[in-house]
What we know:
With 437 residues, the protein is α/β, with parallel strands linked by helices.
Amino acid sequence: MLPAVFRLLWIAALACLVAGCHSDAEFPSRPVTLICPWSAGGGTDRLARQVAVLLEGELGVPVNVVNATGGGGVTGHTRGAVASPDGYTLTIGTVELNMLHHRGLSAVRPADFEPLGLLNQDSAAIFVRADSNWMSLADLEQSIAAAQRPLKASGTAAGGIWHVAMIGWLAMRDLPTDKVTWISINGAAPSLQELMAEGIDLVSCSLPEAKPLLEAGEIRCLGVMSPQRLPASPEIPTFAEQGIDWSLGSWRGLLYPKGVPPDRLATMRTAVRNVSRSDEFTRFMQQSGFHISLAEPDVFTELMDSTDRRFGETLSTPVFAEANRAAVGAWFFPGLLGVLALLVVVSGFKSIGSADSGGVARKGPIIWVVVGVLAFVWLSPVVGYLIATGILLFGLMFAFRAGRRTAAVVTLVAPPLLYQIFSGFLGVPLPWGWLGW
């Protein structure tokens, strides 16, 4: 009779043979995930799905697109940056990656990725319904200036590239930015649907994203924020032609998380290069109205770095800072917790009454609450919400003499759960600190 350990080894070996164990020496040997930070049906999603189809033929394995939306690009880009660097997860990054950290929404930045290749650059444009009275940018500007109530606009989440493009245009023309209220919608496709439903008055996005409705005659493009007319839409006038010296656009490219093994990085870069230079990709881009803008990883890196510097300067100006101001900041939750703790302390001391022996004994935990909350508020922006919450909870468990097992469970489970509730579901920005949270 074989010892138990040998029986287990024999069963594991037999299972590997039956399952046909794949050696990781052969890459890729299983499906690849392509993360898209934006909603299904939008320009980035359409491009991601076409690239996925072409990559499947190049790599010989399925490539599955996952729409990780939320936070104006925070969710998808963060998920891509922290993905396992095994080569099986890549991200279709967008220009918002150059903006999120400048806006204090995420610690993720271009340096957290390994570029695979630039695919596309598109300029912003302004769209209205076809039945509107606005026939030109001048008409729309007059309405904005004279509006008794703010017009409603969208195209992406608040603070995204299309929002910044619109704010830049208004600022360039000395139009009051509060005359246009930006409705935060996660992507151009749902924004255009809202435009057709008359829920908003105008949309700022790229021409390819609006092409189906534009060709159907449902919407009208008043101008594109490009120095020259676009080859795919030569009939659309530019802002420059209408006397407005303002241009801005987006980029889209494929990215790996940092740390992917060099051989796998080289394999994926070759696959991306072959796909982006294929006839099928060119036909798709031309038919969809996307502007093809290909660049090797080193040039792509330079583009991201220069764009990052530009947005660092642009988003710090007063007009953008005011337009991108969040309803609640990263200090909202720590401050709220501090106020609640203060109320608990005040009510606790009132209930204690005179300093008898029992009262003194009960004051200890309350003082620990005060010290813990103050430490939490001070530590949060330094070490991050996750670590600071863990320290606070562990300290309070200790102060109230909770069992070790209970303290350990609460300390390990509660901080990430609270983070998901407040940041993931409620959209409250929290200090990220050392871990990027």
